[in-house]
Amino acid sequence: MDTTETLLLPPGGSTIAGDVDALFYFIVYASIAIFGIVLFGIVYLGLKYRGRKAAADGTTPGITHSTRLELAWSIIPAILVIIVFVWGFNVYMKMNIIPGDVMEVKVTAQKWFWSFDYPDGVNTVNELVVPLGKPVKLLMSSRDVIHSFYVPAFRIKMDVLPNRYTLTWFEATAIGSYDIMCAEFCGDRHSEMLGRVRVVSEREYKEWLESGTETAEGATPVDYGRALFRTKACHTCHNVDGTSAVGPALNGIVGKQRPLAGGERVTVDENYLRESILEPQSSIAAGYQPVMPTYQGMLNDKQVDALIAYIKSLK
Amino acid sequence: MNKIPEVNYLNASRGIRSWLFTLDHKRIGLLYLFSIMAAFALGGIFAILIRLELLGPGKDIMEARTYNQIFTLHGAVMIFLFIIPSIPAAMGNFILPQMIGAKDVAFPRLNLLSWWIYIFGAVFAVISMSTGSVDTGWTFYTPYSTTTSTSVVAMTLGVFILGFSSIFTGLNFIVTIHKMRAPGQTWFKLPLFVWGLYATAIIQVLATPVLGITVLLLILERVAGIGIFDPAMGGDPVLFQHFFWFYSHPAVYIMILPGMGIISELISAFSQKRIFGYKAIAFSSLAIAFISFLVWGHHMFVSGQSQLASAIFSFLTFLVGIPSGIKIFNWLATLYKGKIRFDTPMLYALSFLFLFTIGGLTGMFLGTLATDVHLHDTYFVVAHFHYVMVGGTVMAFFGGLHYWWPKFWGRMYNELWAKISIAFTFVGFNITFLSQFVLGAKGMPRRYYSYLDKFQPLHDLSSFGSWIMAIGFFIMAVYLIHAVFKGRPAGDNPWGALTFEWETTSPPPKENFIETPTLTHGPYDYDKIVPERTI
Known about the structure:
Chain A has helices at 17-48, 67-96, 202-211, 221-231, 270-278, 301-313, and strands at residues 103-110, 113-117, 123-125, 127-131, 136-142, 147-151, 156-160, 166-170, 176-182, 194-200, 257-259, 265-267. By secondary structure, chain A is α+β, with helices and mostly antiparallel strands. In chain A, the strands form three sheets. Chain A has a five-stranded mixed β-sheet with strand order 3-2-1-5-8, with no helix packed on it. Chain A has a five-stranded mixed β-sheet with strand order 4-10-9-6-7. In chain A, strands 11-12 form a two-stranded antiparallel ribbon. In chain A, a hairpin with a 5-residue loop joins strand 2 and strand 3. The radius of gyration of chain A is 28 Å and the shape is elongated. The model of chain A has no long low-confidence stretch (mean pLDDT 89). By secondary structure, chain B is mostly helical. The N and C termini of chain B lie close together (9 Å). Chains A and B meet through helix 1, helix 2, strand 7 and strand 9 of A and helix 3, helix 8, helix 9, helix 10 and helix 11 of B.
């Protein structure tokens, strides 16, 4: 498939991108042709009949209509749109028929990150790693509002709903890293709800699965926590430079007294941090909305430990 | 030398009460005009703020929450307070009775009530702005709108109330057109602007109640916790989208059909030529109005709607393009062998042809199933509907405003400044929105506060265009207001046009005509009559 960037479209990276792009450019050229006719008509007729005296008495011809002409400019566009409709329908069918031999990944959308669950228990946040040449089926649902899973390079987009599963699929055609964006408005951090699809070779994919999503080996808990802080999308809502975002800043808070939304105060310690990660709704910091999703089931104990170690290290 | 008639509708009675409680359709039309221009200015300021924030990725001048509120207000104010009432309620009110030789609309009190309801609805929108303004986008999609902490209820209540204003205007026009035409003015002797208003009025009356019910259910869900749309309470969020677009797609034609009507008047008047294919244009308005009820699902190709439904909606969407195309070619054919003059209203009409054609053609990409999946909810959609709504409706609106301004006030604006203004607007508009087509095709989603670095050059170009457009509109405001007080008297028929409203004085007397007019010629009989221009 064509993977180069064209004038109007981003580089394509999936098996269907070529079909979509061919149709897109067909409509571009057809539109330019029709627009050219209209523009020529405006300019030519406008200049030719500018202030022209049609008859000696100043009247203009009383042409009422021309059935032949009017039929022509009804039927010719009608044929064009039927071609475009049928073409679009065929490609759409191809986009919607999921191949038999697929790898299925569960996608969960929530404010404001994507999480991916692989069949063998591996879980990632904002990073979907897939092997080249294997069709991938995404079974998607949302935990809160409507989101929309959009990978421009693959020419796929599907809304992700809170009350049911929606499906989409793709088969990547080139190794590389592609943007995932949320395309349905979902609130304050809608434009930060970004991820990547990383397309790797079959061998690399196997290695990645076996090693788990993160390598804790050899890294200090603080370094591991710093890495998790990004890969688990904590940084989408929490700053570490003292400024508030959707959630409070996390630097220099350990050991301090903090007011809660209920009016009582709490001392920030390891247990409070652990509770805030796994049961975020139970103690909300004063002045913030209770919007943080739970990380129960998405982090193991070692990862929680590492995150707490990282937060403690922030001054 | 032209003179302003000593007694006219503007000075027939005096005092603020004589305006606020007037039953004269012309004064009500002007009340609407002032109101919607205030809304347009407000919505325009929001637009400039949006473009300023998007100058760079990340934070430029406001927080994400504020940005989300601003783009919601831009959409809600422009659509509900400006563009829906713009042509019918402001210009239709003023011109429609004159075009059919009537003294007023059928129900003058209902007409006044519709303006007061508009103001009442607008107050709720303002309350929403001052009490934690709504941040859902003008589409109010659930369950976001039922769970956000911002004041959704005040805004949607405003929309609910505004709906009644729109229904009353539509009802009034339908009866007026049926019952109050001058003797001898049969349906096929009506000016095409009247046909456009008629088709619009039918949609207003039939579709607006659906919006009313939808926002009422939304309010009930938020306030009383009755689960209609929120899955957490057993509802279905996609149901909201079906309801919403069942109104809001026909509403697009509420916005464009009266604009098309104005274009028919302008093209014919400034070509001094009989309109080509009168019946095709009139019937295509009705065809568009009818099909517009059957295409709402094309907003929902990636919503989880069934693929079969999507295919049917795609097909019906293409059908709606054909009558629009017929109109474009009929207008072009009207130019043939005419006596064309490029006065400002004609420049707006030709700009309309240019921009609306782009708007229509780019609709093909979105009506096509396979390409819409990529383009849906990107800047491509934003650019497309701005080409249709601003390049189409707003250009037609300003074309009509310049055409009838001398009829409203009896005075002319400065032609040179008017041409400078449209040059800025036209160039600025294209810079702003052509760049957004490319942004969208490249994968830039809409309603984004921040964006990837690679999109910055096109965003900056778009923002630059918005400033040029703003200069154009600012110039227009100055010379139009100046004309009201200092413009030179225009005479009864400054453009030499043949529709009825030009047979009375400028400005007209309170009763529109000194004597009841009788039909001596059709609205486009330029092959028989050479009307004299009074400027």
